[in-house]
Amino acid sequence: MSALALRRSRICSKSLLAASFLCPLQPEPQNALLHSSKLHSSQSVRKNHQVLCFSSNSVLNRELQFRRRVFPSLSTHAAAAAELSTSDGLTVDRIVASNWAILDESESDWKSHAAAIAQSIQVIKKRLQWNKLMVRLDLLSAQLNKPNLWDDHVLAGKLSREHGSMMGKMKEVKALEQDLIEHIDMIKLAREEAEDSDLELESLKAMLEMRRNSKEKELEALLSAEHDSCSCYIEVQAGAGGTESKDWAKMVMQMYKLWAQRRGFRVTLVDEMSGEMAGIKRAPIRLDG
């Protein structure tokens, strides 16, 4: 478990422990919402030998609100329609609309990191045609739930692959949104909890790493095309230059193979024509994945 995760766990545990001394947790009605504006400030009213606790700013209420927003269910693509927000209602769209300055990484504060990440998420959604993606997922889900789907194995396989690909893209974007919201909430929580000043620094480091990752995802989305999921062939041929050319061709082929394997592609050597002394004259490979 990372240091950041340990600190989060410690803050959550201490928050719940402190709240338990004030009043016992009561089961909440299903689908009930916390309306902090309707709660009074921290106080206890003794009535009929029972203590009724009200606390809009209590650690317990903040923790419960934090958990509801940070850990929403993403088990189905229907959850993608729900816009994730921080404990104070900050969403990706609102972050972009706030026009926070995006500074260089070395000069950035958490707002600058958040603005850069939110901007990348919006670009990715636009490139994926987010609303059309959701509609297509609904249609594919309905087709995959038909009892006679596998009567046509070819069609079933095609629909299943398309659904899996779209679900992967949707979950990837929602994971970026969820991580951003979580980091912002943790930074705000760290500022309120003076007992753990290192948490803010850890969250800032995590946001910086996320900023770089989201920029890579944005570039991938911009360079994506209709046939990106298809397999491809790469062939390297040695040109003029004798043995040195053939040796260089082999090194280039090895570079392509390592690059593909590190990114999760399955590499198959189709054919290879070796050089007389060293290297290769030509070698095609196939990439799947």
TrEMBL record:
Highest taxon of source: Eukaryota
Pfam families named among the record's database cross-references: PCRF (PF03462)
InterPro entries in UniProt: PCRF (IPR005139), Pep_chain_release_fac_I_sf (IPR045853)
Recorded coiled-coil stretches: 173-225
Keyword list, A-Z: Coiled coil
Residue ranges of domain Peptide chain release factor in the record: 188-289
UniProt record, GO biological process: translational termination
PANTHER family found in the cross-reference section: CLASS I PEPTIDE CHAIN RELEASE FACTOR, PEPTIDE CHAIN RELEASE FACTOR 2
The protein's name: Peptide chain release factor domain-containing protein
Organism: Linum tenue
Lineage: Eukaryota, Viridiplantae, Streptophyta, Embryophyta, Tracheophyta
